[in-house]
């Protein structure tokens, strides 16, 4: 495997690991909670 | 497969914009979609407070978790962005970002185009580091309450996609308009005017998402390939590039949004956008 291939594999593994770790920590729910309410900061009223 | 020759970019951009904003009827009522799809992030910049939005904004997601006590950084959103960045770098900017589509349409307005003062390209990295990653955590530490600083003080996508439809449909929000909204409206107006004169003005100078994806252009699986033997340095690729880069000199530039304009313009077919580079040609067999 080339150096670039190794770097890609490492980064892909890191990305998947981060996603799984984030899911395990319940981040998806935090994001969902923020996304289903009007974000007053986003609309410039917060 | 050469992506540029196989797909119509404008069609993909429109399709991505619609798929990211499937709840179009909500624009009339000003209600937000509350389904489980909002657990997922969109690949491009798209405010999750837009009534039509089906997915979450990846930058908003990063700031939301970063500004929540006990989290500090969103591994979920960060990992998602890293995954997309390694798979296709800034291709998401060229093909999948609804705000990128808007900028492409604005650049069609026939006014004399100018180039961005090159050092201003680094502003987006500053915004990514300070407003997206640091400030939400810092504000949480100082005030006990985090804030999505980029969304709050800068993001023109939020002003356009969320504030406009929500202010039009909610009288109580209109009554709460103050200095912060004026600041955001001025930024949106400046970005729109900037996009008229400078193609992809927001992507070039201000987008933290593009800054992150761009850092991965040099390792991404889908990328721009240059056959140096075929290239005759005619400069046509540089001339048509909306990001004002020279693909023949820097095919993996962090500024490249992989829109494929250079691939189409190359008379020697020396540029290729895809996963694998085609077999190198010699200079003689291109004539």
Automatic annotation (TrEMBL), chain A:
Domain of life per record: Bacteria
Stored InterPro entries: CD1871A-like
Protein name: Uncharacterized protein
Organism whose genome encodes this protein: Selenomonas ruminantium
Biological classification of the source: Bacteria, Bacillati, Bacillota, Negativicutes, Selenomonadales
Automatic annotation (TrEMBL), chain B:
Parts forming coiled coils: none
A molecular-function term among this protein's GO annotations: 4 iron, 4 sulfur cluster binding
Tree of life domain: Bacteria
Gene Ontology CC, one term: plasma membrane
Transmembrane segments: 80-102, 122-142, 176-198
Residue ranges of domain 4Fe-4S ferredoxin-type in the record: 222-245, 247-276
Keywords (A to Z) from UniProt: 4Fe-4S, Electron transport, Iron, Iron-sulfur, Membrane, Metal-binding, Transmembrane, Transmembrane helix, Transport
A family per Pfam: Fer4_10
Gene3D superfamilies: 3.30.70.20
Identification of the protein by name: 4Fe-4S binding domain-containing protein
